[in-house]
Amino acid sequence: MGKKVILAAVYFINQMPQAERGIVRRLVEDLEARRAAAETQIDIFEANIENKSELEKFFKEVTDNAASHQDGHVIFHIDAHSDKTGIEVNGEMIPWKEFFTLLRSVNKALHGRLSIHLAACRAAWSLKVVDINKSAPFMGLIAPTIDISAEDSIAIYRTFYEIVFEQRNYRAAMMAMLHEAKGRKIGIHLTTAARLFCDGAASFLEKENTAKKRQQRLETMVSTMNKLGFNGLAFRKMMRTMTNSDPIPYLNKSWRRFTLLDVYPDLIEEVKAQMPLEMLKLLRE
Predict the structure, then answer these.
(1) Which of 159, 192, 225 is the last residue of a domain?
(2) How far apart are CA 44 and CA 38, in angstroms?
(3) Is the pLDDT of residue 115 over 50?
């Protein structure tokens, strides 16, 4: 996403324990004042979430009212405690896989233009459970790679929102945020669904290149089948047809499903802009 991104709304979702919510409330108040001064049309919403049930209800409300954001991008800024296994809602842990499952329908309702800003410790680890064989739970994601204090989190993300509100420049806001994080020695990971798919596709193609080992296993299976009285030669022919087939059409279909291009073809230019040219050529786009 670059400087031409149209941001429609930011939802500040506070999942912290009651006693720790004040600092986030002050950030929202500050940003509301800056938004008014900048005369931007970006909407700001705030939600205090008490438990998993309330979170599911909130996501459904956003999904049901998705049309109100038209074709703009939407940010879910989520303040919470988390670790490598999941994210907390007021002390209740939700596994990352389940959390992204909840977000998948929201992203789809928002025309595939949902970005997730995770203000939570080591939240970048969540990406390890994202399944590229399903539709993506977001278009973009920003998350810390290490433990982060509330004060550092506020300072880093405030930098981003101030520039978005005042300059309407998404890319400049991200660069300023990374600069602020570097100064505080906080690792921040930025990714998009398109880039995440590229990482997964690279792993898939690497496995496809292990043909020699696969051939050895195939010959062992054929020999065993022949000894058992089955037609091992016919099995070999079938397996060679499957393993030697062109994987690119499969990858292209998976890419379109994951990035929601199969549902929203008009996203094509945004998605392409987030991918290396070499990968687009590989996918024959």
Answers:
(1) 192
(2) 13
(3) yes
What mean pLDDT do residues 12-27 have? 92
- In a shared domain, residues 146 and 202: no
Euclidean distance between CA atoms 205 and 249, whole angstroms: 13
Q: From edge to edge, which strands make up the β-sheet containing 140-144?
A: 43-48, 7-14, 73-79, 114-119, 140-144, 188-192
Hunting for tokens 């940003």 — which residue is that? 31
Across 17-26, 135-144, 165-174, 275-284, least confident range: 275-284
Segment 274-279 long-range contacts (CB within 8 Å, at least 24 positions apart): 274/1, 274/192, 274/193, 274/194, 274/195, 275/194, 275/195, 275/198, 276/198, 279/198, 279/201
Residue 228 predicted with pLDDT over 70:
no
Which of 158, 173, 192 is where one domain is finished? 192
- Do 173 and 236 fall into the same domain? no
Tokens at residue 230, please? 């089955």
Spatial separation of the C-alpha atoms in residues 168 and 162, rounded to whole Å: 9
Element (H, E) at 176: helix 170-183
**Is 1 part of any domain?**
no
Residue 31 three-state SS: helix
Q: Which residues contact 134 (CB under 8 A, 6 or more apart)?
A: 104, 257, 258
User: Residues 270, 209: contact at Cβ < 8 Å?
Assistant: no
Sequence length of the chain is 285
Task: Give φ, ψ of 121 to 5 degrees.
Answer: -60, 130
Q: Which residues contact 188 (CB under 8 A, 6 or more apart)?
A: 142, 143, 144, 145, 156, 177, 178, 181
The answer to whether residues 48 and 164 belong to one domain is yes
The pLDDT assigned to 2 comes to 46
